[in-house]
Structures are given as structure tokens and as C-alpha cells.
Amino acid sequence: MSVPMLKIGAVLSTMAMVTNWMSQTLPSLVGLNGTIISPEADRSKNNNGLYPGSEEGWQVYSTASDPDGRCVCTVVAPAQNLCKRDPRSRQLRLLTEQVQNVSQSMEVVDLRTSRDLQYVRDSEPLLRGVDGRIHTYVELKGQMSQLRPLLSVVEQYRTDLQTLATLRVELLNLSIILTAIQEEIGAYDYEELQQRVLLLETRLHACMNKLGCGRLTGVSSPITVRASGSRFGSWMTDAMIPSSDSRVWSMDGYYKGRRVLEYRTMGDFTKGQNFVQHLLPHPWAGTGHVVYNGSLYYNKHQSNILVRDWLESAVVLQRSLSGAGYNNTFPYSWGGSSDIDLMADETGLWAVYTSIPNAGNILVSRLDPRSLEVLQSWDTGFPKRSAGEAFMICGTLYVTNSHLAGSKVHFAYHTNSSTYEYTDIPFHNQYSHISMMDYNPRERALYTWNNGHQVLYNVTLFHVIRKLQER
């Protein structure tokens, strides 16, 4: 667009120069630059006209433009025979030739100008199209700059797709292996498989008794995991040693509670997030609950009935603990319907309670985790009302002397030898009111509920490695 505009500018400039030349230079060429205009001249004539003196005998009028924009100069002169000898006649002829040349040049310029104007008109749609394309390009460039950060995301998705493809192959291989295992298992009778499982569990417990068990010699400083809930309650992880379950369960309160919160991990429990709620079919009593091999075991409210609840399937099993006191008949020293305390250690599932025939002394019974049947019982001779809390480690019952500040582990009963001893193992009761204390053999730690705080203690065990022939 700049070239045609320059041409138009040149044409207009040329026309202005020609006009200026004809209005100023032309009179001087014909010797009229000294002409005096009479103030009394006729006002009806063109104000731009030049009127010569009376002795000149002719007139020259000023330049004008015709409707087509061309410059027109009118000369009125005497008859030609009067001017032949006039030296200005020759100048006039030369001037006439120059005017004709200029007129021809202006016609050429006019043609070129018309052509250039037409070119400009033809170029306008193209220029509008180019302008639109420029705007489109700018918009596309802006969109490209917005999309550029997504390149890394696309690359990540591409990597993820490759990973998924690898996992798909691995899952296919695993499916083939599982199919083979299923076919192999199908060859065995269910009863035979159950016997094999029981045998493996027995061997596992024997191995752990040999390598992992020991006597309690120390309790660490408390580790506060979280502060939540009321003054009384219980919290736990699965106490089954082979289990890889990382879930955490929390049961707030000790009286007629039914709501169990299940957290995915210990980290989620600490933050109070990612949990589901289980509503038990029967309310609980006390805080002596335990999760063992995926099932929740608890004491049914206002009864000596033990309940096993498969949390995943909502299947419930109930069995009465014969003769056991309940409803604050023989609780721990802090009360709270803590008559029956269920717990687990390296050797299995246990119930700690008492009865009237035993004169309120603590009874320890080993339970079948499937049927809740009592397998064997021991009378420890220690009064239950004098105990703050109790827990099992490697078949030995450890009893604290108080649930308040200054408490310590001061009594131990060994079920493998039916003997007892007094101990002096202090620990820091940081929040001064323990309503639950249970040992978890998977983590070798004591879980406690202390005045609305969930607290952990690590334990130190003195290990005795027994030889095979000594067993």
C-alpha cells in the first residue's frame, strides 16, 4: 500500500508545482509581471485576472481548473498581425509549446494516477485479508504460548502410558500364574487345606516364640500421635503378625458405643482424614477391644458376651464368656465398664477378666479366634480392681498399678510356667489418665488412650533364644 500512496503524493505535488508555476512564472515569461491592477477596475470580472495597460492592447487572465482537475489558462491577445514584431510574441509561442508539453505530461500523470488509484482499490481487499491473517496469526501465537506448558504434561502421559503397558503385561503374567495356582488348589480338599493352614500357623507361632519373644525390661518415653475424642476410648491396628494391613481403627467412649472409624493409614489417622465409618450391630462396653486378622473383637454392652465382627463382610459371631463379671462388677481401677479386656500378642488372642468364684482375681484365658471358645485359663491371684491396666507380651500378662500419674508396670504373670513376679518398670503417664493400654506384636509398641490423647510407647524386650532340643 505504501508504493501507490507515494505515487499519489508525487502526482499531487507535481500538480501543485505546475499550478504555482503557471500562476507566478507564466506572467513573468510574457512580460506581465509589472502589470498594475487599477483599483477602479470593473468588480464584475474575475478577481484573479490581470488587466494590462491601455498601450498593451491585450489581456491575460489567471489560471483556473476545469471539472476534470486540469489547469486552464486563458490569454486574450490582439490580432496576430499586431504582435508579429513584438518580442513577447516569440516568448508567447515558446510558452504555448511549454504549456502543451506540460498538459501532455499532466495527462500522462493523470492516466498513471488513475491506474494507481485503481491498483489501490484492487489492493484494498487483499490488504484486508492480510490484516485478518495477521490478527489470526497473533491469536494462534497466543494460543500456542498457552499450550506450551502442556507439553510436559503430554510427555508425562506418554510415560504413564508406557508404564501402564508394562503393568498390563505383568498383570497378564500374574493372571496366568494365579490361574495355575487356582488349578493346583482345586486339587485339594477344603478340609485338607484347612489342616495345612492350621499346621502352618502353629509352626509360625513356634518360630516366633523361638526368635522374637522376650521379657519386658523397659518402656520408652510417650509419643503423642493425635489428640482427639473424649477422655475415654481405644485405638488400634491389626495385631496379627503376618498381616500387612496398615489401617487404624478408633472407638471413642466406653458406654454403648457403636461407631467405629477406620483410617487407611497411620498418617491419615494422625491428620483425621480418609476414613470410613462402621456401625456395629451391637453396642460395646469398656475399652478392651482388639482387631485381630481383620476382625474386631469386643464385649457386648451389659453382658459377658464376646462379639467377633468381620468388618468387611458384616458377619457377626457371639459367644458368652462363662462366669465373667460385667457392667462394672470387676473393672480396672478407673471403672468405665472395663470388666472384660480383649488383647492379642505373638501367641494369639486373649481375654482378661474375673468372676465371683475367683474372688475378683484376674483370670487370663486364651481364646480360639475363630469360635471365641476358651482354650485354657489361668488364675493370676492379682485383684483386678487394684490394676490400672493390663497387656500381654509373649504369653506373659503385665499389670500396671494405677491409671494415674506415677504409674508403673509392677506385676507379671507367665502363662507358659504358671508363675508370677513383681516388677518395677516405670513409664511416663503424660496426660494422667490411661483408659486403654494394649500391646501390638507387629510393631512392638504399646497403644494407649490417655485423657483424649492417642499415645504410643516402644518397649524393650530381653530375648532368650532357645535351642531346638530345649523345647
Shape: rod-shaped
Major beta-sheet overview: 5 strands, antiparallel
* Helix percent band: 25-40%
Task: Compute the CA-based radius of gyration.
Answer: 57 Å
Average pLDDT figure: 81
The helix tally amounts to: 6
Beta content comes to 25-35%
Keywords: Coiled coil, Disulfide bond, Glycoprotein, Secreted, Signal, Synapse
Protein name: Olfactomedin 2b
Subcellular location: Secreted; Synapse
Pfam family, one: Noelin-1
How would you briefly describe this protein structure?
This protein has 471 residues and is α+β, with helices and mostly antiparallel strands. Helix content is 33%, strand content 31%. Strands 5, 6, 23, 24 and 25 form a five-stranded antiparallel β-sheet that branches.
What can you see in these coordinates?
α1 (2-29) packs antiparallel against α3 (87-147). The protein folds into three domains: 2-144, no CATH class; 151-187; 216-470, Neuraminidase (6 Propeller). Helices cover 33% and strands 31% of the residues. Mean pLDDT is 81; it is low at 32-57 and 467-471. The protein is α+β, with helices and mostly antiparallel strands and 471 residues long. This is Olfactomedin 2b. Residues 212-463 form the Olfactomedin-like domain. It is found in: Secreted; Synapse. Its main location: secreted.
Structural key phrases:
25 strands; alpha+beta; 4-stranded antiparallel beta sheet; secreted; 5-stranded antiparallel beta sheet; single chain; rod-shaped; 471 residues; Neuraminidase; Olfac-like_dom
Write the layout of secondary structure elements.
Blueprint: H1 2-29, E1 59-60, E2 64-65, E3 71-72, E4 75-76, H2 80-83, H3 87-147, H4 150-185, H5 190-211, E5 214-219, E6 223-227, E7 233-237, E8 248-252, E9 255-263, H6 266-271, E10 275-285, E11 290-292, E12 295-299, E13 305-310, E14 315-320, E15 341-345, E16 348-353, E17 361-367, E18 374-383, E19 390-393, E20 396-400, E21 408-414, E22 419-426, E23 434-440, E24 445-450, E25 453-463
Antiparallel strand pairs: 1-4, 2-3, 5-25, 6-25, 7-8, 8-9, 9-10, 11-12, 12-13, 13-14, 15-16, 16-17, 17-18, 19-20, 20-21, 21-22, 23-24, 24-25
Helix pairs in contact: 1-3
Subcellular location: Secreted; Synapse
Main location: secreted
Protein name: Olfactomedin 2b
